[in-house]
Amino acid sequence: KQGRLSRDEINTTYKIMRRIEAEELSLDASEIVITSTRQEIEEQWRFYDGFDPVLERKLRARIKSNVSCHGRFMPRMVVIPPGIEFHHIVRHNGDVDGEVERDEGSPASPDPPIWSEIMHFFSNPRKPMILALARPDPKKNITTLVKAFGECRP
């Protein structure tokens, strides 16, 4: 609702205080938190009671230098950027030329078995597809993704 809900309406609708409490407890119990960007650490996690990016860096430096931290602990934040490296993908049931091995008794079809289950959902299933996983939030910019994909001739 882009800031149009009151704090009570947000809490009633989304149980946000319960979520924040669960996230605080998880953060307190975590040794490491993996994020997708440095911005997420600096602009999101720093609002939680269980994490302070400046203190986290100081504690890590002290621990590396074998200086006592007086029992203070904070989870380490590690950034692993989203995406996939396709050179690691190995084709199964095929040879190096990409030829799919077939049983002599089965009909020759270049489509994977799942296609028979999903083809009826598309008006033209042979068109290129894109998979975007994100919540429908304006900052995720799904509209621009769909527009750019739709305007791309290939």
TrEMBL record:
Name of the featured protein: Sucrose phosphate synthase
Single GO MF descriptor: glycosyltransferase activity
Signal peptide positions on this chain: none
Domain of life of the source: Eukaryota
Record keywords, A-Z: Glycosyltransferase, Transferase
Gene3D superfamilies on file: Glycogen Phosphorylase B
